Amino acid sequence: MAFRQEAQFGQSLKKSEARGRLAEMIDFEKMQSQIVTQGEMIAEIYRMLTTNEAPKKESSDKPMNIQEASDFLGIPVSTIYQSKKIPRKRRGKHLFFFKNELIDYINSGA
């Protein structure tokens, strides 16, 4: 009887060791993926620093009205109304313009 209990204890010990090793493997795989992600982020930061490039902002900057966009672009308001190429957002009867989109429009030469 004592031999059977020792055998069962040995089997349960092996199972718990296996579970522990599996948990370590999972943690190691998670850690590897985090290291890769951080490496990619560092590479992007390095690229931006060496090319003197600022990160692009989303369209979340403060929107401009049509007069502000006209002043920024140096063209008349009527030209903005007539042009279908100038990037804009319409909310009801109001037009909104974002500086980074206007800069991209200028750089594209459209």
Automatic annotation (TrEMBL):
<dbReference type="InterPro" id="IPR041657">
    <property type="entry name" value="HTH_17"/>
</dbReference>
<protein>
    <submittedName>
        <fullName>Helix-turn-helix domain-containing protein</fullName>
    </submittedName>
</protein>
<dbReference type="Pfam" id="PF12728">
    <property type="entry name" value="HTH_17"/>
</dbReference>
<feature type="domain" description="Helix-turn-helix">
    <location>
        <begin position="64"/>
        <end position="108"/>
    </location>
</feature>
